[in-house]
Fold these 2 entries.
Entry 1:
Amino acid sequence: MTHATEPDKSRQGRPAGGPSMAGTVLPLAGLALLALVPLGAPGMQLLVNLALAKGLAVAGVSVLLRAGQVSFGHALYFAVAAYAGAFLMTALPGADLALVLLAGLLGAVVAGVCVGLFVVRYRGIFFGMLNLAFSMIFWSFLEKFYHITGGADGIRLPRPAVLGMDLDRASFELVLFYLTLTLVLGLGWATIRWLASPAGQIFQTLKTNETRLEYLGVSPRRALLWGYLVSAALCGIGGALMGVTQGVVTPEYAWWIRSGEMVFIAVLGGAGSVRGAFVGALIYELVRTYASAYAGDVWQMLLGGFLLVIILFAPRGVIGMIETLAHRGEARK
Amino acid sequence: MTPTLFLLALFDGIAYAALVFIVALGLTLIFGVMRILNIAHGSLYAIGAYATVSLSGWALAMGLAPILAFPLMLVSAVLVGLLLGGPIEWLLLRRIYDKPEVLQLLVTFAVFMILEDVQRLVWGTRPYFEATALQALGNVTVLGVTYTVYQLILLPAVAAALLLGMRFFLRHTIIGKLILATTEDREAAQSIGIDADKVFLFTFIVGAALAGLGGALASPTTSILPGMGADMIVLSFAVVATAGLGQIEGAALCALMIGLGRSFAVYVWPEAATLVPYAIMVAVLSVRPQGLFGSSSARKI
Amino acid sequence: MKTWLLTALCAAMPLTAAAADKPASLKVGMTTFLTGPASVFGVPAKNAAEILVETINAQGGIGGVPVEVSFIDEGAGAETLTSEYRRLAESGGADVMFAAISSGNCQTLAPLAEDLKVINFMWDCGTQKIFEEHSYKYVFRTQANATPEMLAAVIYLLKTHPDFKTIAVVNQDYAWGRDSWDIFRTALMAMKPDVKVVGEFFPKFGSPDFSTEISRLQALRPDVILSTNWGGDLDTFVQQAAQRGLMNSSTFVLPLAESSLERLGSSLPSGHIVGARGDHYFRHPERRDDDAFKDFMARYEEKTGEISVYPVFHTAQAFAALQAVYEKAIAANGGDWPDEDQVLAAMAGLEFQGLGRPVTIREDHQGIEAQLMATSVQTGDHPFATLENIMIFDGADITAPVGEVSVDWIGGLDASFLDQVGVATYAD
Amino acid sequence: MTAPLLETRNLVIRFGGVIAANDVSLTITAGRNLAIIGPNGAGKTTFLNICTGWIKPSSGQVLFEGEDVTPLPPRAIVRKGVARAFQIPQLFTEHTALENLLIAVAARDRLRNPFMDLHRIPERDEMMHLLEMVKCADAAHRPVVELPEGQRKLVDIAVALALRPRLLLMDEPTSGVASSEKHRIMEILVEALAERKVTSVFVEHDMGIVERHAEEVAVWNAGNVQLRGTPREILDHPDVIRDVIGEAV
């Protein structure tokens, strides 16, 4: 997998990173709009919450795309975190929401280290397929070891307490919504800053020239491992949030189609773009929910067609289109 | 693990491996030449099965002999190759060969999602079961266990024939050599005048037809229902990656390893049966990073 | 900052008002399998629901209010199911929910219904754990659970094949498959301790291919093979077993096979034990001469071209319960439309009759339903197997008493229990 | 007596039947720029690969400042003070020329702060100066993939220099640069190397460059160093004229 994404033109010639339209203003406006959803369109709250949780996981996959590596098994960390949360809740019924998310994150990072140490030795199709293999191994474990994992029906993730308070469903989901939004803002910003930082830039050189990186005194494998753990953590938090929002975790979380879906959404939103991950996830969930309501059970066909159009005509994804429009707007100003 | 159980696991493993190989063969061929892991291969497999069930159902309704189901399988395989394989390569993949590999992969994933819905729209969601071809061949009893001749003898025979046929085709026919050349080094092949576009189109059609044939041959042994493509294709990924890219013989050996591994697991530790193929893949790749038969291409500096 | 955020959010919570006046329509949200292998099971239930709603509305609806039913596909997976269920229950799209077919989905949706404070009839799922591990205010089961169904199967097996030695099981790998086997095995060991279990297989739900399991079973040669598979999985398993002659060497106990009789056609030979999860049979010996029964059977066959199967009977029971509870609540409310709490109150001790014998709801919200077991026979007057040597067991005798855990209660039984159960026997 | 900057002892490199290096012992002392000349395919680049640990010798040792570095991977040898510019420029094609240099600094200093923008590291101006020095200032903000071959070679050398090495190994530094520019660039390079006290070893085909800019010349032929001396001695040596220059003229 040599060059996986187009060079990110928005970084060109603007070293100081001033508040450009597409870079900062639009995303913040978008998040502010989403913050109004529970008041303006409560029906959409659950959908947006799920989309943003999935967006975090897609951001993780997008980070790997920045290094030219495509993982077809990142649903592994999504599922590990969700199940870690579920096991914690069965072990400590009154556990707090923060603890559940932490357990999920910890589970994902530990799994990330164990699998990461192995897969960072591979590149391209082998990297993609080995990740797939590990996620399928975990899926089989979840699906078949009924007495441990609850098998195909999964495990319930009862509502955790929030700061010691046992909230009823409605207020809990409101708190969860705004927590997800805060995490999206915080982690999104942190990921973008990390990608622009020296360590993040070194990670991205894996896409173009590992030999030169080796000759700069850096181990490409260790550089990939750092990026791999960042992506596993993001997927973990996404998975834990999804598990808590859904209230049930199933082996479906680790199925390979979900990993493929994440890569699908990453490219739809804009391969390698953190902002694109959330935009892609929102579009994906909206089409999935409302297409099936109006256009019968063909939401998969619609999304497949939409992605084909994106790949053939706008390879920098939806965020790429927004940025071109924004730049054109700025140029005219 | 008494000797009889050992033999039973062996027979089941071979029957299953034959099917996995036939599907993985098409995938390996396409990947070898075009460096694309065709995720839509799973849908082509499923549509091959659906097409066979419809064709043989229609033929039986017309009162034709059940033995006719076999040629119909070839017909549906060819149909899948031409009607689906051709347009996918010609209309879609041809326009993205210069694009990054992740986008090529995702085009096939998008096609997979589209075709999954096409199956649902055309054939509905209810399961089909059409086993006349299988019943036509009758049973054989080995060590007290009755097997269908279809699964125990026909499938492995077809798989072996395809392996030898493909080897002969690739090594001893002109088109075969062109495909091998393009697999080896596309730029070099083009520089000596090989029309890569034609080779790609031909390879994709053959690959798609093999997927269709896999589905057609599988249709009597299983009930045909939505999602069967996704289950089978993820196994073929394991076979292709374990074997090494574009390695026909490798795919055969790995399909056998994975088939036997899975069926022995059912006898020894049933819970781990679905786990075994991927554990084998990880084990093989940890020892040989480019796959069993893959060759590592050192980077020129 | 955290505490400020919390108080502000709670204040913004909208208050729900109880609607007491007569609504435009009584909306029912029903989950069933419209896709995947189980669709052969879920689609008949959908067709039955549509016929029943037509019939009810033709008689002026329930208490003068027409009934509307909307469906959610359980085949879309647990995630989509929960989001759709929640969307329907929250957006006022449903006053009463019928969920679900799969035991796994019931375990997921029951707590959700309690959370959403929406009345939920578990119209088909069988796992007994739901009411034994938790108590619910809004969730009821309008049919029996795995305990009477498996006990009836064991009793019928012991009455018809008293001296078999070995048994193997091939159940689907999810809640139903696992729970039903636990109960069956416990009952069998309690009443016939000398039986030996020679093989336990749990292929995945929706598995298209059982060839490896069948090879193993042929090597093991058990006298009896139990399978609580249903829908597409049962069809595939029986057809593949028949192809390889397994049906000739072992007696099959298929407690849910009544729903597959027509689809199995000639694949199901005579002499195998068939159950129907309740007293459901399109030629029900006690009800086949009843006019309402005959009318429904005719209309169902006319609409679908198929005979009625037990999911259809369970759907009829759910709608009968719906009609009975609202009419009871309206009567108790002086003719006015009842609010949710009044309907809940009316559920206590409710008695209603679908297409089988009457069903009563116990105080632990579990339905008491008679169980029909029989033996398959290829008589030739139908292109598929029909039933003979039919036994209908009284539901109350074979359901675990309120508050007892089924597996413990069954563990305490012994061979003498066989004669303590009320049973009606019919030739065919 | 301090150990030589780089020393190879009895190096043997065998690929299947081909002997790329046959018992090569070569020492490079600090401060004297050495040019390696020899016919094409004689194994000069392979020699650089061995010295930097990219491939392992069949037998023999490579020592850097007296320390045996034979088993080490390139990254460990680089950390000891060696840098390399390549025959085929090895750059991060999707980053700009300036970013390539900034990344080199980040790697050298192990910059870990996850929230500091790469463009804001203190050495930014120094790197701009380095680009100006190799006449690539205009390309500072253009992705390397868009630069012509010659400029890419120079940026490649600048990246190596950014590591502040003590020994710089270059593989045909001015190939691809317009011949009118070659000498001027070499002068700038040699001056910059001297100013930074960096010893350089460069494989070279252009005898004009060797003559004017190399302080010492080694002749690599048939897998071994046959001759070594000042440019004048080597370029007039009959064997060299026959085997090396004869080919070159």
Note: Chain A touches chain D through 31 residues (CB under 8 Å).
Entry 2:
Amino acid sequence: MRGNQANRLAAGGLVDRSEEISFRFDGKTFFGFKGDTLASALVANGVRLVGRSFKYHRPRGILTAGSEEPNALVELRSGARREPNTKATTAELYEGLDAASQNRWPSLNFDVMAVNQLFAPIFVAGFYYKTFMWPAKFWEAIYEPAIRRAAGLGRAAGLPDPDHYDKAWAHCDVVIAGSGPAGLAAALAAGRGGARVILCEEDFVLGGRLLADGGTIDGLPAAEWVARAVAELTAMPDVRIMTRTTLFGVYDGGTYGAIERVNDHLPVPPEHQVRQRLWRIVAKRCVVAAGSIERPIVFAGNDTPGVMMASAMRSYINRYAATPSRRIALFTNNEDGWRTAETAIAAGLQVAAVIDARPDVSPAHRSLASKGGFPVLHGSVNGVDGGKNGVRKISVSLTGGARAEVEADGLAVSGGWNPAVGLTSYHRGRPKWRDDIAAFVPDGAPPGMIAAGAANGAFGLGACLREGFEAGAAAARDAGRSGSTGSMPVANDEAFSLMPVWHVAGKGKAFVDQQHDVTASDVELAQREGFQSVEHLKRYTTLGMATDQGKTSNVAGLAIMAAVSGKSIPETGTTIYRPPYVPVAIGAFAGHHRDENFHATRLTPSHHWAAEQGAIFVDTGLWKRAQWYPRAGEKDWLESVTREVKAVRGGVGFCDVSTLGKIDVHGPDAGAFLDRVYINAFSSLAVGKARYGLMLREDGIVYDDGTTSRLAEDHYFLTTTTAKAGLVMQHLEFCRQVLFPELDVQLTSVSDQWAQFSIAGPKARDLLKEIVDPAEDLSNEGFPFMGARAVKLRGGLKARLFRISFSGEMAFEISVPARYGEAMARNLMIAGKPFGVTPYGTEALGVMRIEKGHVAGPELNGTTTAADLGLGKMMSTKKDFIGRVMAGREALVAPNRQVVVGIKPTDKARRLRSGAHIVPKGETPGPDNDQGYVTSVCFSPVLDQWIGLGLVERGRERIGEIVQAHDPLRGEDYDVELCNSVFYDPDGGRQRG
Amino acid sequence: MKYSIFSLARAALSGHKNWKPTWRDAAPKDRYDVVIIGGGGHGLATAWFLASEFGIRNVAVLEKGWIGSGNAGRNTTIIRSNYGLPGNTGFYELSMKLWERMEQDLNYNAMVSQRGVINLYHSDAQRDAYARRGNTMRINGIDAELLDQAALKKMMPFLNFDHARFPVQGGLLQRRGGTARHDAVVWGYAHAASELGVDIIQNCEVTGFTRDANGKVTGVETSRGKIGAGKVGMAVAGSSSRVAAMAGLRLPIESHVLQAFVSEAIKPLLPNVMTFGAGHFYVSQSDKGGLVFGGDIDGYNSYAQRGNLPVVEDVCEGGMALIPMIGRVRLLRQWGGIMDMSMDGTPIIDKSPVDGLYINAGWCYGGFKATPGSGLVFAHLLARDESHKEAALFRLDRFQRGAMIDEKGQGAQPNLH
Amino acid sequence: MRIVCPFCGERELGEFTYLGDAKPQRPAADAGEDAVYDYVYLRDNIAGVMSEHWYHGGGCRAWLKVTRNTLTHEISAVEPAAGAGAAKVGA
Amino acid sequence: MADFSWDVRSPLDRALVAGAYGAQGDAGVSLTEIRNFDLVQVMARRGKAGEMAKAAKARFGIAAPETRKAVGTSDATLIWSGPDQFLVLSKGGKHGIDALAPVFTGSASLSDQSHARVLISVSGEKARAMLAKVSSIDLHPDVFGVGAAAATSMDHTSVTLWRNNDRDGQAVFNLLVFGTFAESLWHTILDSAAEYGVTISHSEELA
């Protein structure tokens, strides 16, 4: 063996001595074994000082052996994988593990910040609320940075997380949290009963407290019984055992959150594998067998390294064969604590003394004491003499007032046990107090959840098995599984007697919340200052708000609060329990959805063709759309876009507009239906015709627009804007299913069925003739403006053709089945060659719609009415429609509303910017003369200047007025003219031509 | 008693044995000039302004549980005045100015931290909308800057610029925005109001209103008996509909759950408050070191003060998409508050149709930053029976008149605001 | 939260979209502005059992009437909207 | 006269790379895209569910599914897609929209979805483990047996999922996803399957 693990017992434990593992702590190399946690390996190497406390930077050691650990927090791993505040007590040891202590400078051993202890008299609870107020400016400059630097224990990596995460769903009849005696018994009963079972264990081995405390079950040694139980469960096809998995939360409808640390026990996850996986487990029933947490007793110096929970000491000795101390004193107020004395003696360690707060102890323990040759002192520990290197001496106040001192290098403490009431309390159920065990037990658990065993306050081994087994059997029955559950495992119940001791008066700081440095006197101070509700206590002292969420401190804290305020503990009550039960990496909640996979990506049918053309793409919603198609030699986007616009206006161009929402509206009442959802009439639309339609919300504000065509008596083809496609479908289904169920109409989204292209420009018809079957009549007479019909293409392909124009040119939109979309783009290029056809992107599309004064997203902003947009005349007065009544409210028809108007700088060379505000010329801009703003702008190749649309007070009445564009953000002020919003071909001759 | 480093040092000498309660835990009297329902930030601030600005000191604040137990103690502590519509812009700036002098006003350190609030944009359309909003702010004398990507890279190099689904293009920055310690705001107003004689009555739940023959509200019935009042103001965001119903009123409000999250405490990582423009995520780091973050409401009516997993995932996805370095930072605690979601996303501060009853409601998830401003304008309304000029548009009848103040343009669909 | 869609069976929350209180009925065309204002803007905002409109957009696209307790999120009944599955009407 | 061709391209034309992907060794998941099919959405008109059912029975010789099922004939698969509606999946135009239109005149509204969807067949011993990462529904054999169908979502995208007859002792899940989402969802599926090892192929045959 390479390492000298001085505190490792020669034999025993569940570590694999054949696999020696080297690891580093604060740069020093140590060795441990497979099966160790970082904490147990440190214990085996005699390392006691592992961290510095939050506020006073006091030396801290290892207090527990589980996820409740408040002190032994380290930065695990390095570089981009550094994980701050990692509990050494749950970190599984692996070859090359690298950990560093936190919150100290320059070193753990010599921490200058320990000077804070000198200011301890001032650094009491809430001191910062009373000072740092003068002068005001100093807060951000001096006080706060200092406080922020001091606060927080570990350092985050500060680099992107290189590991992967994913999320998955699991379904079962019964999910079980914890694999101790109660959990295993529950799994056996439920599994035998035929239930689908998921057993979650946060540890990397099954067994829970049995691993440390052993015992005899069904006449077998605990370890053997566990092995058999696991074997039986593993053989059941519908039982899934998940180790390294913590059930952290319960949500509505029997949904449970669990985190699986898939590869945290390796230096880095293997290729193609994730670091952690988030599980959403859907279960009909849940058995909480999460056990209980041993609680400390608050006394002076209770945070000295070497002071450890009695049960944790047993874990280290029995499970890990590592000895935290050589000469151990035990301070207990209950029977269970004595097991640590038994364990120590069995392991050949010295027991210095047992300090028992109770008046008398059992004969068995008396004889143990005499055999072990140690005294039993009746009283309480009220002080610890020691330092960063551990405990030296313990002072005891004996019942009756005398004092005693005990020489020891370790102190095991047992203040009784607190059932883990987290999961059962996450739906705001408040745990109830039980005097016999002086602890809170689950009450008001979420539907379908039941606690069993120690988690339910049943501390005897026999009782744990019984409760677990019965809960498992009941859960299976409730889930409708009727199989036989076989025989219940049996064991004896140990005696349990406890005399509550929460706080022992003494000299020096006595810590309630060790991680947040909250002392007993802080709790008393809070009470004195009126923070008497437990929630106030928590918020004022930060008790229980550290990374352990107060698992070892909350109950003691409110017990002390109860004492000083003269209330009982149940009267004082608990704070609200909140998930997650253990902290969960943010990356795990995100799973696969990060970086480019944050959201799905939608691609148009011609996407890959456009990419080949070198198109620049823009994100619109989930879509990637071609924004423009740069050509060699073009110096910027504006040059490319201007070329595209000129090509369309002067010849012909095409653009993939498949992103528009497309909906088939079928049925005899289709027309009547559309009359109710649009402000204008559609039942009167002739077959073979298209019409522009405008939809309002029920509150009278414009919702969406688009052209809708009538392809048959009982078949309309409706289009929506790209942005609103999904929402309009939902809205129409609401109208169909909820508002107007009497109408015979059917809706189907065909957005993905059709690839749709706009073909625009004076040569559009010439190009189209090359594409469609020569038999099709495309003449202005045969297929006039706003015509819509099915056509056959050369080669027989069926398509839909619409004579509609967004650009203001003679234009068509043609739809082909989506898998022909790419072919259509290629064919348009081939057929269009003689006409100089030019593909154009969304920028050119935008330029041409602004030149034509068509409104779009920036104008349909959820606050504009049809009249604001200049479309008020479309509102039918002959029919009811969604939004009709509310649209008439006084403020929505007020004369001074901001309405759409054209805007152009008086200086033709001037660039116009969206977001600039409009104020009367010559006036100083202020809240009272802020009359509107520029909504959309473009450089118009036709007018050879920047133009735009805006929403301006009484804008349409002020055509020709010169006003001021005010843009303080960009430091610009300039004159603009309000003008007609249709800049190009106002009488529309070109699109009809 | 006066708080300062000196009183603190003095107290230290006597082992802090002489501190008095931060506020008097009062028992109800028979009658008050003004009774305020709700011992949250807004209610306590209203009481303090009534006493300090308007000289009305015979005031009681009634709290069902412990003060600050509602949204005042559950929010993500952000303060800002970056609103774009008339009515909001001026009001939130009034509030911001009051934040800037709060410690001195109250002699209590609420840790007001003007570290800057930045709203990130990811598209030209978003940039234009922010430009419009930022210009509105500047026109109203509020600080605002439009940053481009280069400036952002300098300021926040840790954002995801290289592998983003929706690349960050820039942001609208308000440097005066930031955070404050939410509980301390509650305690500070309680402390200062109590010093001026206001009665703060905890564990006192209002169960009904007493009315005279003309229907005028003359007081409240509570779990601690009848209490007479010249005027009654309600500041119970989250429960507004329930309290209003006791007076026979229906409000344009729905109660929704908004979740919030805090991570384990870590050393300083994030310098300011940032809001993702392409997903539901905003975050700041508390002085204690935890990342305090949130996103969108769960989306369904709820009084449960807890939410569900889809939103937790959605928010963390947003966080990872924007700041990939937080992947290994652990989420420590999730909780939920009840939001008064109004029909246009804007609050209501007005007389109610019931004589003697005044409403302060509909804060959606923007209530915390409004705390001081809300206190001042509500106190003004209660004291003078007319709206403060910066709250003149927060009228209850604006929906009937069609004068909504809809920043998001979502209309009468509360869960979209 | 899990909703038992009458057509699809039990599904998780993420498949559904919430609209709100299902009690207000759209007034008749001639009901007048006050009635429509009430329908569009005023809510009982019940703390307790409430009938709500949910849309199963992530599934069968049916609009549902869900009876749910806003204090506990417990769902006691789910039924299709009048027009969902209307092909069975009178058939 | 320009001459050009109308070649068909699947939305997965570029994303799908036939062969092995992810972890080495025996592939736990096999993904096959099935190309070039006819898919018609049939939606009963108000009060006409009975007539639609009769028409379907007459046409296909089997009852169209009225609950979450997929039923097959020699040349078509009828997949439940919601209340009063089902999809007809077939090849070669025999049950394409033009062929079916007269069959359902007056009883149902038809909408061609042949190009709106991409059909992916998922099998392999790790198929369920992989699907559990993208699907929230329970695919346990006792719950989602052969012939079960679901209208559900994957990665926030609507999909139609049904279970085919087993192939060499293993469950086969068919997935109809929207074409414009297909490439994106395909990559998500590959990422989810990578740890199990994947074999990728495409086929013209309906499984």
Note: Helices of chain C lie at 33-41.
